[in-house]
């Protein structure tokens, strides 16, 4: 390739990239599906159509913490866990939990919605700060959790370059929440 | 001129897209919100240990006032979702190596890197990311990065300062617990000169859920320096990379990087990267480019250097792999070499490599592929530990094509095949790694060398 051809190729590639950036940018929708500013709004959106939502504030006992720790292979330090239960026509719609954690330097908030059998219905990223954790709000990434439950192999959740810590934070969080549900509501550990 | 119009256009479009220009703070109403839903609170559980508390002194009013004051202070520290937060955080990473060549070379300990990072938040949409790198037991100091992020909209944001050049998957995210080998792969040293920074700025963003999630970065930064004159400085910078930039036969463009200490900026480069983070589950596809003139006005020819890079990463259960390829094209390599020869003639001994007949190539090519097995997962063990055995092949050719009249280097640093096998243990946290590996390098002239490496690596935040 001679120099002139090469320069022209690079110039075309360069201009093409800009066109692509603009076109794709206009096409793409917002990455975050849920636009809410409070935990209550997030939970209400999760149980849209519910007659009532019960907020269960559960103070964990030492045996419960130990059981959750065993399922997650991690030390559990939570003293209190808050679960929301959606009720419609006397029927249980499922459970939701909102976690707020410091991720690398800045916070990230997400909600895990579960079916009554303890399987994950969906995971939503509600709010995050800084720019290093986009990857975790992509539906393609979050959808991996759907159907997982305590005892699933969370090591199978894929990583994302540049969002490594956010990926680990949320994966560990979803694992903890499913384990807590199993221990508290299904195994009924006291 | 055209470019500046485009940049202005994009910026105007970004601002048009987001009145208020704040994306961390979203005030829109939720979809499907139902304000009539009643939330009933229930308390339960806890260990059956009774603790009786007794308070003495002060009036109830004093106590109430104190509680209100504390509640106000705590509220001020919370974000929208109630999380307590600070505005400045310290992060960092480090790695120490023990290298044992199996030939006559001496074994060495090297506190290779200790890096302190500072992340700061000024407002909900302006952030600082900075890192100071103390290399080789603090004997070599680098301003690895220090830039401001202006978060406008997920699709288009602005970044300015000293940034990491977005070429390859390791250069921007090079913490030593993110790769398995003790040393960084040779590809990420002699082909892509990790860690490589540039000073300037540009745009970055994400295209939401397009193709499973796509993000991009595009920057204009001070360019590499391919040649330098004997006897006087280009730019007033001193110390590592200050005025010493130039391309070489064995390390390619690596020595052309300039630390931003009054570094010459007569030439500006454009660089960018697009990542499809999750094209299908566990699979990432990405491409990067870099192009800029590199002679910094020292000769008439520009010495434009262009890198085209592609990489993939894949993990399925216990199996993980990655592969990268990069081609570096250097224009006017003949003129670059002639200039170096002329400068070396003015002050003999300035460039010993040039004197020894090792010249700048017109094309550099390299690729690598690495496979790893996560053993606890393969064996079905439920544990917080991870043990990875890995194997990597690398092809490195810093003399892939030579300009007419200049012969390629034939010694031990020409075309190289590198084989690395080893093990990395992440002991109950992914942020600490103990590593051991064996590297076998085969050079073009048939000679080879072998080295055993041990390392500790950590990342904190």
Please explain how this structure is put together.
The complex is a heterodimer of chains A (190) and B (461). Chain A is built from 5 helices and 5 strands. Chain A has helices at residues 3-27, 39-46, 62-72, 139-142, 164-186, and strands spanning 52-59, 80-88, 91-103, 106-114, 120-128. In chain A, strands 1-2-3-4-5 form a 5-stranded antiparallel beta sheet, with helices on both faces. In chain A, a hairpin with a 2-residue loop joins strand 3 (91-103) and strand 4 (106-114). In chain A, helix 3 crosses helix 5 (164-186). The N and C termini of chain A lie far apart (74 Å). Chain B is mainly beta and 461 residues long. Chain B contains 6 helices and 17 strands. Chain B has helices spanning 2-17, 60-76, 187-191, 333-346, 352-355, 375-378; strands at 38-45, 88-101, 108-121, 126-135, 140-150, 157-164, 197-206, 214-222, 268-280, 283-292, 305-316, 319-330, 363-374, 386-401, 416-426, 432-443, 448-460. Chain B has a 16-stranded antiparallel β-barrel. Mean pLDDT of chain B is 85; it is low at 17-34.
What key phrases describe this protein's structure?
heterodimer; A: 190 residues; alpha+beta; 2 domains; 5 helices; 37% helix; 25% strand; B: mainly beta; Porin; 16-stranded antiparallel beta barrel; 6 helices; 42% strand
Task: Give a nutshell description of this structure.
The complex is a heterodimer of chains A (about 190) and B (about 450). Chain A has about 190 residues and is of the alpha+beta class.
Rg measurement of chain B, Å: 27 Å
- Helix count of chain A, per DSSP? 5
From the spread of the alpha carbons, the general shape of chain A counts as elongated
Largest interface (CB within 8 Å) is between: A-B, 84 and 91 residues
Secondary structure blueprint with pairings:
The complex is a heterodimer of chains A (about 190) and B (about 450).
Chain A: H1 3-27, H2 39-46, E1 52-59, H3 62-72, E2 80-88, E3 91-103, E4 106-114, E5 120-128, H4 139-142, H5 164-186
Antiparallel strand pairs in A: 1-2, 2-3, 3-4, 4-5
Chain B: H1 2-17, E1 38-45, H2 60-76, E2 88-101, E3 108-121, E4 126-135, E5 140-150, E6 157-164, H3 187-191, E7 197-206, E8 214-222, E9 268-280, E10 283-292, E11 305-316, E12 319-330, H4 333-346, H5 352-355, E13 363-374, H6 375-378, E14 386-401, E15 416-426, E16 432-443, E17 448-460
Antiparallel strand pairs in B: 2-3, 2-17, 3-4, 4-5, 5-6, 6-7, 7-8, 8-9, 9-10, 10-11, 11-12, 12-13, 13-14, 14-15, 15-16, 16-17
């Amino acid at each position: 390739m001679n120099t002139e051809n090469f320069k022209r190729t690079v110039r075309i590639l360069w201009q093409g990239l800009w066109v692509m950036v603009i076109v794709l940018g206009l096409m793409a929708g917002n990455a975050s599906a849920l636009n809410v500013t409070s935990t209550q709004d997030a939970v209400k959106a999760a149980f849209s159509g519910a007659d009532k939502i019960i907020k269960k504030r559960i103070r964990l006992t030492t045996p419960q913490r130990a059981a959750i720790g065993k399922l997650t292979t991690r030390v559990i330090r939570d003293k209190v866990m808050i679960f929301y239960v959606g009720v419609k026509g006397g029927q249980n719609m499922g459970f939701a939990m909102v976690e707020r954690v410091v991720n690398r330097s800045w916070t990230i908030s997400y909600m895990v919605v579960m079916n009554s059998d303890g399987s994950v219905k969906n995971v939503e990223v509600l709010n995050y700060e800084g720019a290093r954790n986009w990857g975790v709000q992509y539906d393609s990434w979050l959808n991996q959790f759907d159907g997982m439950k305590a005892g699933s192999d969370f090591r199978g959740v894929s990583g994302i370059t540049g969002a490594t810590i956010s990926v680990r934070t949320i994966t560990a969080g979803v694992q903890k929440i499913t384990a807590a549900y199993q221990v508290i509501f299904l195994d009924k550990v006291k | 001129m055209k470019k500046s119009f485009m940049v202005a256009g994009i910026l105007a479009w970004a601002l048009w897209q987001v009145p208020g220009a704040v994306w961390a703070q979203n005030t829109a109403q939720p979809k499907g919100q139902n304000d009539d839903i009643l939330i009933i609170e229930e308390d339960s559980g806890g260990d059956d240990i009774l603790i009786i508390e007794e308070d003495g002194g002060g009036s109830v009013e004093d106590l109430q006032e104190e509680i209100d004051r504390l509640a106000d202070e705590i509220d001020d520290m919370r974000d929208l979702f109630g999380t307590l937060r600070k505005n400045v955080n310290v992060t960092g990473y480090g790695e120490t190596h023990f290298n044992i060549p199996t030939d006559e070379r001496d074994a060495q300990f090297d506190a290779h890197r200790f890096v302190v990072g500072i992340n700061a938040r000024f407002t909900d949409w302006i952030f600082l990311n900075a890192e100071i790198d103390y290399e080789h037991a603090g004997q070599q100091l680098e301003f690895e990065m220090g830039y401001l992020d202006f978060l406008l909209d997920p699709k288009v944001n602005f970044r300015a300062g000293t940034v990491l050049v977005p070429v390859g998957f390791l250069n921007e995210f090079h913490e030593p617990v993110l790769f398995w080998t003790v040393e960084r792969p040779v590809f990420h040293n002699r082909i892509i000169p990790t860690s490589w920074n540039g000073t300037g700025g540009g745009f970055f963003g994400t295209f939401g859920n397009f193709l499973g999630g796509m993000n991009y970065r595009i920057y204009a930064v001070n360019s590499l320096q391919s040649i330098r004159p004997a006897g006087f400085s280009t730019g007033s910078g001193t110390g590592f990379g200050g005025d010493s930039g130039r391309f070489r036969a064995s390390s390619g463009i690596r020595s052309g990087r300039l630390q931003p200490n009054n570094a010459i900026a007569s030439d500006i480069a454009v660089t960018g990267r697009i990542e499809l983070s999750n094209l299908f589950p566990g699979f990432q596809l990405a491409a990067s480019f870099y192009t800029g003139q590199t002679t910094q006005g020292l000769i008439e020819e520009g010495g434009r250097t262009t890198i085209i890079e592609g990489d993939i990463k894949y993990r399925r259960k216990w199996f993980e792999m990655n592969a990268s390829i990069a081609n570096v094209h250097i224009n006017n390599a003949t003129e670059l070499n002639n200039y170096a020869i002329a400068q070396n003639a003015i002050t003999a001994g300035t460039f010993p490599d040039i004197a020894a007949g090792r010249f700048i190539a017109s094309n550099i090519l390299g690729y690598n592929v690495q496979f790893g097995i996560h053993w606890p997962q393969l064996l079905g063990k439920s544990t917080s530990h991870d043990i990875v055995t890995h194997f990597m092949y690398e092809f490195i050719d810093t003399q892939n094509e030579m300009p007419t009249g200049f012969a390629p280097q034939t010694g031990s640093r020409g075309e190289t095949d590198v084989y690395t096998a080893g093990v990395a243990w992440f002991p109950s946290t992914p942020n600490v790694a103990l590593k051991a590996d064996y590297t076998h390098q085969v050079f073009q002239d048939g000679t080879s060398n072998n080295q055993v490496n041990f390392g500790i690596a950590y990342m904190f935040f």
